[in-house]
Write a structure and sequence with these properties.
Order of helices and strands: EHEEHEHEEEHEH
Shape: globular
Strand content: 15-25%
Number of strands: 8
Helix content: 25-40%
């Protein structure tokens, strides 16, 4: 996995706020931690994306308890942290410049939420020419209510988002598949 960076998106305490509703994949953070351990062991590029909300009352607001990274996936040492204010980690955050300066060509993306920042960032990365892999069991989604008032279960939102990504933008793999390739 030469020239491949691991990107962990928005895995901050804020994601546990009840406002997000029911979530799937309660093991996502444990799988992210497994990926981080492997990347750290091999000295690979790790980028933590931190959501710095500018929306009033957001649990992701800088200076609030929710803004902190979850302990099991918190940055260590000199690992790169890039703040963003939108769902897209490439918009106004300097991520592309950072990746190009390091000649990174492939991205392994994990984090939350599958249907928001993970999806948006993966699509943009593919559009910019990066090879993208999204880790299915190291991402998590929440329930979504559509315009008709129908609630879509988090597991269904997760599966459908991953299906859309796999159709055009990314390869979708499990943590074990990724670890099997780099160990």
């Amino acid at each position: 996995m030469t020239n491949t960076a691991l990107i962990i998106i928005d895995t901050q305490i804020a994601i546990d706020d009840p406002k997000w509703g029911v979530r799937n994949n309660v093991d996502a953070e444990a799988n992210m931690a497994r990926l981080l351990d492997a990347w750290r062991t091999r000295g690979g590029d790790i980028i933590h994306i931190r959501h710095d909300s500018v929306c009033e009352g957001s649990p992701y607001t800088p200076g609030t308890p929710g803004h902190a990274f979850k302990p099991q996936v918190a940055p260590q040492g000199a690992e790169t942290v890039i703040g963003k204010t939108t769902n897209n980690a490439f918009v106004g955050a300097g991520l592309e410049k950072h990746l190009r300066a390091r000649d990174i060509q492939s991205l392994v993306i994990a984090g939350v939420l599958t249907q928001h920042s993970v999806d948006t960032t993966a699509r943009m990365a593919a559009s910019l020419g990066f090879e993208v892999t999204v880790v299915s069991d190291a991402t998590a989604a929440t329930e979504v209510m559509d315009g008709r008032g129908m609630t879509w279960l988090a597991a269904d939102v997760h599966a459908l988002t991953l299906a859309h990504l796999a159709a055009d933008y990314a390869t979708v793999k499990t943590t074990d598949e990724i670890l099997g390739e780099i160990l």
